[in-house]
Write a structure and sequence with these properties.
The structure is a homodimer. By secondary structure, chain A is α/β, with parallel strands linked by helices. Chain A is built from 13 helices and 12 strands. The first copy, chain A, has helices at 10-17, 21-29, 36-49, 55-62, 79-91, 110-119, 134-143, 166-179, 195-210, 227-238, 252-265, 282-286, 298-313, and strands at 67-72, 97-102, 124-127, 146-150, 160-164, 185-189, 220-222, 246-249, 274-276, 293-295, 323-326, 329-331. In chain A, strands 2-1-3-4-5-11 form a 6-stranded parallel sheet, with helices on both faces. Chain A starts with 9 loop residues before the first helix and ends in a 5-residue tail after the last strand. Chains A and B meet through helix 4, helix 5, strand 2, helix 6 and helix 12 of A and helix 4, helix 5, strand 2, helix 6 and helix 12 of B. The structure holds a DNA duplex.
Chain lengths: 336, 336
DNA sequence: GCTACGACCCAAATCGATTTGCATTTTGTG
DNA sequence: CACAAAATGCAAATCGATTTGGGTCGTAGC
């Protein structure tokens, strides 16, 4: 007799059901036919004993962990929890476990985070961080771990990409500002080498060019994708003379920081200066003035990533990489 | 010769270093002394081959997964990502992997989520959801998984608890409103049976009693801890006559929803009616009017949970359960 | 009634690490 | 210099599931 406290193993189930472990495994996996009566008996015992296969033993044998990892640059940016929620929407029902890692931890550089995650042998990775280098991505690709990225340069060997068309998004914002008659439109960017920064900046420049406006380097500032970055950058840009009359921010957090500064300087928004964001986090509609921004469908992006990953993990898709572009939408509120 | 594509196993390392697998394992775990020269040699080989122990094999043998799970009620409530970030702050450096599960998924009831997480044999669980029943908790406790809860009824056999003193927090808010001369103070609660709802309501009632005020059932409404819940509840409460002149909301999201309603009704805040929140999520300071609320130290709560869990996992603490109460702080802004 | 053929089940090898019990050096001491 | 004690290495058992190659049993066909 087994002692009570222990978790039953597959042998215990087999014994209780009067069959072999092989048979139990087969009713679990369905890889070989099992008679209806036997199956029913085994399932009853499983239920009764509360048996759950040991995931370590299973993945040791099958080389699959049934878990995927999400790596984000900043959990305090509400955009990323939404992506996580979207992933969950899809992953949960397939039994996958989602782990979330914040690469913004003071002490944790991305290469280390990637090593950490790879060491855990997850089946797939959703890389939502913009600071990834080709080496980081290459390391993931080489490990055989399925990879989906949020944005970034598209390269076949680097896996699928899901993104919104940020260039057009910023372009739409800037065009909107031009339509409204703003003259000196400045751009307040995130980390200068990050891919989203580059493509958003591109949208800014394209819109200006199309309108026949000059692109003035003194009206472009790079910092970080945070509220603090917005504060710092807005101070710089708003001290230019003549002062810009519009601040296009590369995301909503930056815009929130910029509004901190306009408030502090006593500038009226959008009277003295327009401020726009990007992402449409919930705070964008709550802040005063409500932010003009572009809706970045975070949750849907998460769901899409999950689907791509599941496709590949199921072996149903093994061709070249795909890039999926989701719709964005300009949302005009009170700040422009 | 091993083929190139394969990941090296411990035997490959041993062979390359000219020692036995036992020795390699010992330099990895340090459970038995290994000569400095041998250790250096082995470590060099590990580095060269990029060897990482297979976590499945390891946890199969050791019965430890080096991972912990966080279960939250709602990832879109910014409070919970902050808790997750706090957990990461501490867990990461100990090599633990954090998985996050949102129990608010439409199709996922808590018991199922708990089963799912337990089936993965995580070492510890941080249960941050308020809908947990005693059965849920009991199931976790029985499984031997270490448990830390965010709030809830304190019971020795149910593991440690980390919380802020919500009763006092709401009490502080209500007292503040009384001081400011508000007369008809209503309470807009979250899920009625949730523990945080009960203890926050308690703070409301205590403050009224202490001030010699009556507790009027028609001024108390329960809904959900969401913006939508706030909208719905505020509509009800603000239609009472005479109309309450203050709405104490059980969290910030509810308060945000309440402000949606006051705006819609054309009521001035705090002129016609005061609105207060709880948690101090970032949006609380951004919204207009800025919310009077109570700071709930989410990130620190997360860190504390992680520390308690690590204590127990390291076997350094095996006594009765602890309840840790973190400081809250009343933050008076413009909405009261 | 006997052979074939399925249908079903079993024993044993395997995944990759950890961990004993022993055997074999080294080191230290009188 | 010898001998005890400490340091270090090895072989083999073990964790719990998956997965083959082989049986064994029952049934269908003649």
């Amino acid at each position: 007799m087994k002692e009570a406290g222990r978790r039953p193993d597959i042998a215990a189930v087999a014994a209780a059901a009067g069959v072999s472990v092989t048979t139990v495994s087969h009713v679990l996996s369905g890889r070989r036919p099992v008679s209806a009566r036997t199956r029913a008996k085994v399932e009853a015992v499983i239920e009764e004993l509360g048996y759950r296969p040991n995931p370590s033993a299973r993945s040791l044998r099958t080389d699959r962990s049934e878990s995927i990892a999400l790596i984000v640059p900043d959990l305090t940016n509400p955009f990323y929890p939404l992506v996580a929620a979207g992933l969950q929407d899809v992953l949960m029902s397939s039994g996958y476990l989602l782990s979330v890692t914040d690469a913004a931890l003071p002490s944790r550089a991305l290469p280390e985070v990637v090593r950490h995650v790879l060491a855990r042998r997850v089946d797939g990775i959703v890389l939502a961080t913009y600071g990834a280098t080709d080496q980081d991505i290459d390391k993931i690709a080489k490990s055989g771990t399925k990879l989906v990225r949020l944005g970034g340069r598209f390269r076949a060997e680097f896996g699928d990409i899901v993104r919104a068309d940020d260039t057009s998004g910023v372009h739409d914002i800037v065009s909107h500002l031009i339509d409204r008659g703003y003259q000196r439109i400045a751009f307040l960017n995130g980390e200068p080498h990050a891919h989203p920064s580059q493509i958003r900046l591109e949208g800014y420049e394209r819109a200006l060019r199309e309108a026949g406006r000059p692109i003035l380097p003194e009206l472009i500032h790079s910092g970080t994708f945070t509220r603090a970055g917005g504060v710092e950058g807005a101070k710089v840009l708003l001290s230019r003379s003549p002062r810009p009359d519009a601040l296009v921010c590369a995301n909503d957090l930056i815009a929130v920081g910029a509004l901190d500064v306009t408030r502090q300087l006593g500038l009226s928004v959008p009277g003295d200066v327009a401020v726009t964001g990007y992402d449409d986090i919930e705070a964008a509609s709550l802040i005063t003035p409500a932010l003009t921004t572009v809706l970045n469908p975070a949750r849907e992006i998460g769901r899409t990533c999950a689907r791509l990953l599941l496709d590949r993990l199921a072996g149903e898709y093994d061709d070249t990489a795909r890039e999926i572009v989701l719709a964005h939408r300009l949302i005009v509120r009170d700040s422009s």
